[in-house]
Design goal:
The complex is a heterodimer. Chain A is an alpha/beta fold. In chain B, the strands form three sheets. In chain B, strands 2-1-3-4-14-13-12-9 form an eight-stranded mixed β-sheet. Chain B has a single domain, classed as Class I glutamine amidotransferase (GATase) domain (Rossmann fold, 3-Layer(aba) Sandwich), CATH 3.40.50. Chain B contains five helices and 14 strands. By secondary structure, chain B is an alpha/beta fold. Classes of the chains: A alpha/beta, B alpha/beta. Chains A and B meet through helix 3 and helix 4 of A and helix 1, strand 8, strand 10 and helix 5 of B. Chain B: Pathway: Amino-acid biosynthesis; L-histidine biosynthesis; L-histidine from 5-phospho-alpha-D-ribose 1-diphosphate: step 5/9.
């Protein structure tokens, strides 16, 4: 049976892993390569690296660390940060990344998704969606440039319409960052994920809100997402991956256990 | 000495780094005349079958690969190209391994088949030595080889399909052993030890 994926997310800034709360106030967590090796040895199923300042600074991420990651880990990984064209993506994939994830550049120019799909195949193309629940209107809204609190802004899309559109354009996977939950460790946004899962035929990854081990079994059992992404619970060692995997296996979630 | 065949499709580095982690230094070759100098070879591949097959023919790899008599293993699309026929693009493959590549019928499951899945070995073979029922490997694909006499291990996702195949000196893995942690390393090591 296909396992549900546990995906530690490493936000990269100036060559180091950082973590913010609600996308703000970044603090340094540690060295990229050391953390990547640690998580893959502990049984992470995949890693995601976001170079958070790249899109905001209008540049492609630093390719040097991508190659070092490929050399040092033996699980798949996805890279994001300022990828705006087929040639940008080619450079990242050549270094050994398995997938590339795009977010703000896809909002600026949605055809980019189709271009990447046609060149590299669906399996490489991940679209990150930063979704904010607006209490006043009761709508889920897509945000962009969330790597920098001063640049972050609401887009013209509602989350539902954007999710349908990126699938039509050829995305192979969607990472849904539920912004209201990000970094606050109160659990995944089950209601939103359920709603978006119903619209999504491609793999869907939950992101934002993991605080305790039960949050993972809850998100898998209630929303049928394909993977769960988390950062601070792993960085702060609130949750150890082997313990999490064993817990999931005990709770009948399809899991890859590493001996 | 092991060669990695470079036809211009990406992800050569991932395969190279995986062998380097095993203490083997592969050479990346771009001309078919170099192939015979090597004891074994890997044919990686990602992308569309049509494009990749066209490159193999145009660059002269078809001839070189079919004459090669030492262990040669295709990975993912590389495996599919070693087989008789692919429904993706409706093309003939290299015909080194019996069987057809067909679109995976995933039913209500999400497609592509992406992630870690268990594999079940069929009979005993040096390539699947030490693999047990709980071992998982990393898949990313939407087409697959139909289970037949060349199948050494199979996987289930909406339907059964071949995860590992071999015939004569040719082998193939549908998943990515270079990205499959310790299990993948074991399988690559098995390939390094395989005598035909």
């Amino acid at each position: 049976m296909l396992s549900k994926r546990i995906i530690p997310c490493l936000d990269v800034k100036n060559g180091q892993v950082v973590k913010g709360v609600k996308f703000k106030q970044h603090e340094i967590v540690g060295d990229i390569i050391e953390l990547a090796k640690l998580y893959s040895e502990q049984g992470a199923d995949e890693l995601v690296f976001y170079e958070i300042s790249a899109s905001v600074e209008k540049r492609l991420l630093d390719l040097n660390w991508v190659r070092d990651i490929a050399r040092n880990i033996d699980i798949p990984f996805c890279v994001a940060g300022g990828i705006k064209s087929v040639s940008d993506a080619a450079k990242v994939l050549e270094q050994g990344a398995d997938k590339i994830s795009i977010n703000s550049p896809a909002i600026a120019r949605p055809e980019l998704i189709k271009e990447l799909h046609d060149e590299f195949g669906k399996q490489c193309v991940v679209v990150g969606v930063d979704s904010f629940y607006d209490e006043q209107s009761g709508e889920f809204l897509v945000y962009q440039l969330t790597g920098d609190p001063n640049a972050a802004s609401q887009t013209r899309y509602k989350t539902q319409e954007w999710i349908s559109k990126v699938q039509e354009l050829g995305a192979g996977e969607i990472v849904l960052n539920c912004m209201n939950q990000d970094g606050v460790r109160k659990g995944y946004d089950i209601k939103q994920l359920k709603e978006m899962r119903a619209l999504c035929d491609i793999p869907l990854i939950a992101s934002g809100g993991a605080g305790k081990i039960e949050d993972f079994s809850e998100v898998f059992n209630q929303t049928n997402v394909d993977g769960a992404l988390a950062a601070s619970v792993f960085h702060k060692q609130v949750i150890q991956i082997p313990t999490l995997k064993q817990y999931l296996a005990n709770n009948k979630v399809a899991t890859r256990l590493c001996s | 000495m092991i060669a990695i065949i470079n036809t211009g499709c990406a992800n050569i580095n991932s395969v190279r780094f995986a062998f380097e982690r095993l203490g083997v230094t592969p050479e990346i070759i771009s001309t078919p005349s170099q192939l015979n100098k090597f004891d074994r070879a890997i044919l990686p591949g990602v992308g569309h079958a049509n494009v990749a097959m066209k490159r193999l023919v145009e660059q002269g790899w078809k001839e070189a690969i079919s004459r090669y008599d030492k262990p040669l293993m295709g990975i993912c699309l590389g495996m599919q190209l070693l087989c008789d026929y692919s429904e993706e693009g409706n093309i003939d493959g290299l015909g080194m391994i019996n069987g057809q590549i067909k679109q995976l019928q995933t039913g209500a499951l999400t497609s592509p088949h992406m992630g870690w899945n268990t594999i079940q070995t069929v009979g005993q073979h040096p390539l699947t030595k030490g693999i047990d029922a709980n071992d998982q490997v990393y898949f990313v694909h939407s087409f697959a080889h139909t289970v037949n006499e060349a199948t050494l291990a199979q996987c289930e996702y909406g339907q059964s399909f071949s995860a590992i195949v071999a015939q004569d000196n040719y082998a193939g893995m549908q998943f990515h052993p270079e990205k499959s942690a310790k299990v993948g390393a074991k399988l690559l090591n098995n390939f390094m030890q395989w005598q035909v």
